């Protein structure tokens, strides 16, 4: 009887530990986790970039996007304005594309970056490892990191895909709180957009 009780307790403890290891919506990370690092990855600017490049920034926004998602496209101007607004306040912004379809190729990424005059670095990861490490599921999906590069916010940019209808800018509120040393009231939200096109490995 004692053995059975022990096994049941151990089983539920293991299940609880599995679920508590991730966030409310993110299956990999939770708020307060150290953000995954990344080795040099190619950018649309013709250079390679690694996480160390932003080591002096007070905050860093990592987000996953692509060229082929209408929702991601709808957010481009909002992210451009955010980047320009916070660049003087020691906040870095880095975008990643991991989709492997033709519309999301490096060539197309370069065309997009040039057309929109992206003020942030736009990187490509053919291995898709960085997106998996962050537990990213959507384009766009945002992660705000503090100076210790711990995750302090993750999820959607704001509360509505249509900019005219958006009333709450989650990312901006979190960034302001972080820079002021205040508590981030809404630290995790559900990202929205197109699903990241992960390559499935067949047995």
Automatic annotation (TrEMBL):
Signal peptide residues on this chain, from the entry's feature table: 1-22
Protein name: Thioredoxin family protein
SUPFAM superfamilies for this protein: Thioredoxin-like
Record has Transferase as a keyword: no
Keywords: Signal
Listed Gene3D superfamilies: Glutaredoxin
Segments forming domain Thioredoxin: 29-180
The organism's taxonomic lineage, starting at the top: Bacteria, Pseudomonadati, Planctomycetota, Planctomycetia, Gemmatales
Example GO molecular function: oxidoreductase activity
